[in-house]
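Work Package 4 report. The design task specified in the project plan requires that, given a folded chain encoded as structure tokens, an amino acid be chosen for each position. We show below one input record used in the internal validation round.
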């Protein structure tokens, strides 16, 4: 049941959309949360297979800041389930090591294993931590590394590879985006949600309902309605064929930024200069994943695999190679029964950054063949770390950039929103059309679980100020 008029309509229930809806609902506004998929969470998703098999799509690791954000903007129960992943491992031709992935441990490794002077390490960490949105955007991450660790491709790999996996950024992106994300992780390491993404989304849904947010799933917003450069309402084409319109003065889109501007609003409603800038926004890359459920009771050796394993066969770090369809680098996430207490299954999810175009426009048989090759290469590689792997796999399947596009409607299946220039466009929608806001993965710093939640908070505050005015 929906009302005819809402203070705010949120389009999309990714972590940014849900967080903003929760804050606004809690503040007493009437909020409608629309989701085109049948379940909430966006990329923070799970999917189920036979015999209780359940896979987490994007629960690999996030910074400690999630605890504070969840406590403040969700509840204590959610915050209390966030626990550290202590064993982060690297295995590549340049080095093998294990770390707790925090500043103290990285300092030790850089000094003892890579022979860097303590002052240089301290100066690098201080510089990374001091970086903000206001820094010089022309300084690239490559420049930053050259300043502190010239010609040290092994150190670049150590410092960059996990961040490239975390948000798809490259050495050519602004150094400030690297500095902010790296410092977030370095604050206290890498964290996960105990109980799995399904429990997180269930707890968040309960909180949304408690705060009076109306939720409609299977309900894609197809048109954001405007009148005289102001938001007027939203047209919804429910998947059961029903069409409905709701009136509102504020729309917060958590959907893809370009899709919001060009598909849902329409470029004719924006100024020419704004549209030109919006057209030039580059989307971040997408990914492929291989999901593996081990047989009941088969235990993966935690001492060998750890929690997160960054593997590569490439001789040196190379952003382009990380995206290449001839895969040389994979991140393995290992999930032990402790991730979902009470179960006796281990899972592995292998992730690799990927180009949408390498998977688009294939014939059905080519697409299937490529997926099967991806699965075969992945198990081949994983067998190095898990003995008797093949005999103990219960279920295995792959997802591609096309999969992410289909389930979230993100253009080109972008896993991490847009490059840095997207942030400015996302922040300025309300200057073009009064009452139009966006929150979701943009600009690298606002992507990932923590970035998305925090962006939801920032934009909920903007909307509160807008409505109070
Ligand atoms: C494979 C993979 C692994 C990842 N691993 C990690 C990780 O380990 N750590 C980390 O921090 N981050 C990770 N991420 C990134 C992280 O999951 C995302 O950055 C974050 O979840 C995005 O949240 P969001 O709020 O931007 O919205 P999204 O999750 O992008 O959700 C947008 C929502 O809007 C809905 N929607 C779109 N159009 C419409 C419409 N017209 N009407 C209604 N609803 C609509 C979509 O269905 C979706 O639910 C990963 C991402 C991927 C793909």
């Amino acid at each position: 049941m929906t009302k005819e008029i809402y203070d705010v309509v949120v389009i999309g229930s990714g972590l940014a959309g849900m967080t903003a809806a929760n804050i606004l609902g809690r503040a007493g506004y009437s909020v409608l949360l629309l989701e085109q998929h049948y379940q909430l969470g966006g990329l923070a998703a799970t999917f189920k297979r036979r015999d209780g098999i359940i896979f987490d799509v994007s629960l690999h690791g996030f910074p400690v800041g999630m605890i504070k954000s969840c406590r403040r903007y969700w509840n204590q129960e959610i915050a209390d389930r966030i626990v550290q992943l202590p064993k982060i491992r690297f295995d590549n031709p340049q080095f093998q090591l294990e770390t707790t992935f925090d500043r103290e441990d990285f300092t030790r490794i850089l000094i003892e294993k890579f022979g860097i002077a303590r002052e240089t390490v301290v100066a690098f960490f201080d510089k990374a931590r001091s970086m903000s949105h206001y820094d010089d955007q022309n300084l690239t991450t490559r420049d930053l590394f050259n300043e502190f660790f010239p010609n040290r491709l092994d150190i670049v790999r150590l410092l960059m590879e996990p961040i490239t996996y975390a948000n798809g950024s490259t050495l050519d992106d602004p150094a400030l985006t690297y500095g902010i994300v790296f410092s977030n992780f370095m604050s206290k390491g890498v964290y996960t949600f105990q109980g799995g993404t399904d429990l997180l989304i269930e707890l968040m849904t309960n909180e949304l309902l408690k705060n009076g947010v109306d939720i409609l799933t299977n309900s894609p917003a197809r048109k954001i309605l405007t009148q005289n450069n102001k938001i007027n309402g939203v047209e919804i084409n429910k998947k059961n064929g029903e069409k409905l319109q709701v009136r509102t003065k504020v729309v917060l889109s958590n959907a893809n930024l370009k899709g919001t501007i060009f598909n849902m609003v329409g470029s004719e409603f924006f100024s020419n200069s704004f549209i030109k800038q919006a057209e030039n926004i580059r989307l971040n890359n997408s990914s492929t994943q291989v999901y593996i459920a081990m047989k009941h009771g088969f235990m993966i050796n935690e001492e060998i695999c750890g929690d997160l394993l960054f593997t590569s066969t490439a001789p040196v770090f190379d952003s382009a190679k990380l995206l290449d369809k001839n895969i040389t680098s994979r991140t393995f996430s290992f999930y032990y029964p402790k991730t979902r207490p009470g179960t006796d299954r281990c899972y592995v999810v292998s992730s690799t950054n990927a180009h949408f175009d390498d998977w688009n426009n294939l014939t059905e048989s080519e697409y299937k063949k490529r997926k099967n090759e991806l699965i075969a290469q992945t198990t081949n590689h994983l067998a190095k770390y898990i003995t008797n792997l093949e005999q103990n796999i219960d279920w295995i399947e792959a997802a591609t950039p096309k999969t992410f596009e289909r389930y979230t409607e993100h253009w080109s299946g972008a896993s991490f929103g847009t490059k840095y220039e997207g942030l400015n466009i996302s922040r300025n929608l309300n200057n073009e059309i009064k009452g139009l806001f966006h929150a979701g993965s943009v600009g690298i710093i606002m992507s990932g679980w923590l970035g998305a939640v925090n962006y939801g908070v920032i934009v909920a505050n903007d909307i509160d100020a807008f409505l109070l005015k």
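Residues 448-468 form the longest helix (21 residues). Validation will be extended to a larger panel in the next phase.
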